[in-house]
Amino acid sequence: MTAMLARDIADRRDSLQIRVRGRVQGVGFRPTVWRFAREYRLDGEVLNDGEGVLIRVSGPRGEIERLVERLRGEPPSLAAIEAIELSPFVGRLDEGFRIVESAAGEARTEISPDAGICAACAAEVRDPFSRRYRYPFTNCTHCGPRLTILRGIPYDRASTTMAPYPLCADCAAEYSEPADRRFHAEPIACHACGPKARLVRFDGRAVSYEQHSMLDDVDAAMSLIQKGEIVAIKALGGYQLACDATRAEAVARLRQLKRRDRKPFALMARDMDVIRKYCAVSSEEEQALRSAAAPIVLLDAPGPQYLPESVAPGMSTLGFMLPSTPLHVLLFRRMGRPVVMTSGNLSDEPQVTDDAQAAARLGTIAPFALIHDRDIANRVDDSVVRLTAGKVRVLRRARGHAPASIRLPRGFETAPQILAFGPEMKATFCLVKDGRALLSQHQGDLEDAATFDDYRKNLALFRDLFDHQPQALACDMHPEYVSGKLARERAQAQQLPLVEVQHHHAHIAACLAENGRPLNAPPVLGIALDGLGFGARTDMRGGGIWGGEFLLCDYRRFERLGTFKPVAMPGGAQASREPWRNLYAHLMAEMGWAQFAMNFGELEIFRALAGKPRATLDAIIKGGVNSPPASSCGRLFDAVAAALGICFERQAYEGEAAMRLEAMVCRKTMVEEGDELAYPLAIPNLKGSGLPYVEPVAMWNAILGDLVLRTPVGVMAARFHKGLANVLVAMALKLARRAGETGPRFETVALSGGCFHNRVLLEETTRRLEEKEFEVLTHAEVPAGDGGVALGQAAIAAAHCMDAGTTRQEGGNPCVSVFQDGS
């Protein structure tokens, strides 16, 4: 009887409306629904609208349930379903199942990130019998441009930069056929109707590809690269500059003309066989290289072949990517060597996207350019990832990752719409809407005027794309960040509440949000290590500049439990660029010049520091003039690197000293040498406040002693990393214990800040914390550095607004203006 009743219910005809939310537009979702619905002989229709995909379906209840389960289990490869909601449908549906035109409405759907070329399209462009043979803009619903060509929602051809290209009859037939993988692939095109690629000279003189190749302009461009030329390439999200990575003179010329002294260049290779000539590649790293995101992957580079040192000076890794567009696939068809594929710009400027700007800015670097006539709507840099502690972790979140949303944890469902303006360096911004966080692509350093202009353009773009109307704003509490100044201006002009967030609290909140830590979960110990951030204004136990912090925190508040020793930064921002200044300040803080001269006067670093303007430095440190005390882990890395002879005088780019120090680490020492030789760091208490802090005096004596003994630099670098990981764990253990209470203060530790992009430090710290039975939260999808700060700002602002009674469903009282100060 029960079985018969179940069959009865399953066979009963029903009409339902199915709402699918998430990343479901522009990924082949509607034809997938169409195919499944026809298999189950259901009637109805499917369409895109402002909230995602809407399905209206009629048929046996059991078959409808099978359709829903099939969608959950077998969505298109680029789709990310956030929710499937079912409700009764009372309207009339015609027989059969069809795909109907998109409907307008409030934008609540996700935009798919740009996706690397799929295997089917790659095979087509190589196949002489295919009508898209050597067509550099081939794509389908499983791959191709999305954000880079998008001008509006919904994601239809008319809203993209493909709008000026009417479809030919063949493409129109594919576009209209639900069974075709190009059904409603908005960028669809071919030789007959789509954009064209051309090889040109920036000086306007004529160029003929027949001089260089028997194929076409794309092939001719690689012929020029093979001959040692620098070529500008109009790629998916901006121009690139390319040269043969095996030609030292070409790489040196590119560095000089681009004004990029030592920062590593990204590389592109035709296939995995080429990459393996230079790098060791694990299965996880290969999977990342071949993924739809197609990022730059940092790989260990032990050989067997080697590229010129000028490709990545001082590094033990190389950043490789595979061809991610059909243009690149065709470009590399005859190239069996790596090619430098770096952003098309002068140092620190935003990547060029406009053809006229390319001629003006890049013409002095690259005489030739491979261009095309499809506009780039939105600049998107290449993403960068690295395998660390068993996970592929995003270091720069851009192409292939943005603007995929991050579902906020339990408790944030009613959060109002928030706009977080992010930091100043490695900037991103973040929108909160419908319980999701939309973190922008990497914007760059906002001190550059052109980058700041592009940042403001993208703020307006995301507002329009996602129909975002913020009820509150959030920013860093640093008074001089240009992102914060813009937030304050808009808060005043639009009469919106502003939440000013302490920098390191935002770092930890971003880590909590990424890991799904619920809003009302117990506080964690956040260890935030970076270069610097503005300290809490009302904190009387240090204040100033922070950068090595131990915070007991959740989304709503934090308490500073510990820190690194505050040491002067003589020259202020100049100390961030010149590591020797930090070395001098640290040594003077620990032992003074007389003791240093008496015990270590024979060392090279003594003679180097003796030649500096010590009297001036001593005076500004003593007088507190342009020498702010900073509890910065990043500046400690700089000082140690300078002591070991790495980047003593000047850093050519932000983080160079720390990156080169990590690159020097002797792996044998890390594995085989015991902790007794790791450099010791103590944990006394600051005078007056009693705040526990990391004291490096014993470490400095050990380092200087090893220099006297001529200990290899790789061994010393390993001992420093081990010692630093040890003291982080020791501090966590110390802070977890509360006098007079049996239970620990916290059981979870969250690691964030740019110093945790360091693979050795993250792996050592994580392993040692887990051995002490702490739960450890780390970053993977969101950068640990400043690229993730906007997410933390948004989560903190949302928590405060909800506490103040502001929610997206009910409105409520305005969120109070508040800044986070540790109270």
From TrEMBL:
It is an enzyme of class 6 (ligase). Pfam families: Acylphosphatase, HypF_C, HypF_C_2, Sua5_yciO_yrdC, zf-HYPF. The active site is at R30, N48. It comes from the Bacteria. Keywords: Hydrolase, Ligase, Metal-binding, Zinc, Zinc-finger. Residues 15-101 form the Acylphosphatase-like domain. The keyword Hydrolase applies. Pathway: Protein modification; [NiFe] hydrogenase maturation. One of its GO terms (molecular function) is acylphosphatase activity. InterPro entries: Acylphosphatase-like_dom (IPR001792), Acylphosphatase-like_dom_sf (IPR036046), Acylphosphatase_CS (IPR017968), Carbamoyltrans_HypF-like (IPR051060), Carbamoyltransferase_HypF (IPR004421), DHBP_synth_RibB-like_a/b_dom (IPR017945), HypF_C (IPR041440), HypF_C_2 (IPR055128). Residues 215-400 form the YrdC-like domain. GO terms for biological process: protein maturation. Involved in the maturation of [NiFe] hydrogenases. Along with HypE, it catalyzes the synthesis of the CN ligands of the active site iron of [NiFe]-hydrogenases. HypF functions as a carbamoyl transferase using carbamoylphosphate as a substrate and transferring the carboxamido moiety in an ATP-dependent reaction to the thiolate of the C-terminal cysteine of HypE yielding a protein-S-carboxamide. Belongs to the carbamoyltransferase HypF family. This is Carbamoyltransferase HypF. The gene is hypF.
